[in-house]
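Standup notes
- DV: blocked on the single-chain target, sequence here:
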Amino acid sequence: MWYTVSMDPRLQRLLDLLDDADGGTVGTSLRLPVRLRDAAGVAIELGIGASTAELTVQGMRAVLEAFAQRAVLDAHYEAHPDHRPDLVEIALATAELDGDPLAAHPELIRRAAQDVARSRDDPTPDDVLLYAAGLAAAAA
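- DV (later): unblocked, structure below
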């Protein structure tokens, strides 16, 4: 298993259940909003899924996996706080993932992060990138 951090037994159970692809199926009654059901029908016509049930299962799995990944990451950071990326690292990774030209200028992102952190409580990577873009524009 890829998760080795000590964690809440309920989270461990959730991860184990998500890892078990051969757990069988169960019938259930689920009430869907009419428009969501209709949108699923259109999506099926477009070839996005085979059935409303399949789309529902995919959606539920996606939400549970995202929650589990976040919880495992939080547990890891709790056990290893020195592994948590800082604002500069997150802003730089955000720029790289977004294909932002600022990604080629880590020193500018570092300066922007320092400036924003001094003037704003709990700044986000987007705050840093916006400020860095302003610095780049002013220098041009």
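- Follow-up: Residues 9-83 form one domain.
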